[in-house]
Description:
Layout: E1 5-9, H1 14-25, E2 30-34, E3 44-47, H2 56-59, E4 63-68, H3 78-90, E5 95-99, H4 112-121, E6 124-130, H5 142-150, E7 152-155, E8 161-162, H6 167-179, E9 187-190, E10 196-197, H7 198-209, E11 214-217, H8 220-227, H9 233-247, H10 257-262, H11 269-280
Helix pairs in contact: 1-6, 3-4, 7-11, 8-9
Amino acid sequence: MTTKSTLVIGATGTTGSRTTAKLVADGHRVRAASRRTTPVPGAVPVGFDWYDSATHLAALDGVDRLYLVPPLGDADPGAVMLPFLRQARTAGVHRAVLLSSSAIPEGGPAVGTVHQVLPDLFEQWAVLRPSWFMQNFTGSHAHARSIRDEGVIWTATENGRVGFVDAEDIAAVAVRALTDEQAPNTDLVLTGPEALGHDDIATIITEVTGRPVVHRRLSYEQMRDRLTAEVPVEFAAILAGMDRAIAEGAEDRITDTVQRLTGRPPYTFQALVEREMRCSS
């Protein structure tokens, strides 16, 4: 019997690259999907573009499970995702793990519509709903760039707190959801071990790196307009609205999901910054 593969969509991205690496390290067969068919150690690189349906069927060859990263910056990802997922089910995929967000409930905007129909499409499934990524402050995200360029974090979150989560922990949960004998068949809210405000984030970065960083507060409208330089205006409005929800306390929570599924506690933000400092030195 031929061993089936896991198709990781977004295999060069923040969670996809880490999920691919962990699957490969555990001995699983992986097809690493990206628009540029980028080589990924230990995996079979495949070309995949959400907006080019001609790439979809070939990517599904020999696949029985999926890790789904939605198209970035699309306010209506279901328009391209749902036809692909129906095609995947027909092709023999039986398990799908979708990356969503703690800020987007089932049936909510954007990827919330995909979340709503996933259980009807696949007998085994999970929806990962991580809180905001710790890597937003260290990678190529707008926050990370403004920290490097200006020493400033700009948000409309006011004093709101967030259970920021390390992408390493998201990937660790993704691997369990993809490979455990029994799929979660539920949505999983993922957080780090503590809820932090953006003032706290700025303080930790300052203390660990020695470089002063501050948090500057914007209104919803100012944040929306600032984001339109990065993403389409509809998506900018959604993101700014998420900041406003944080200000109102929507993300002030922590969960035990990472500990429960991986058997270890989630990483702290300070541990992430210290790790990044060691890697860059």
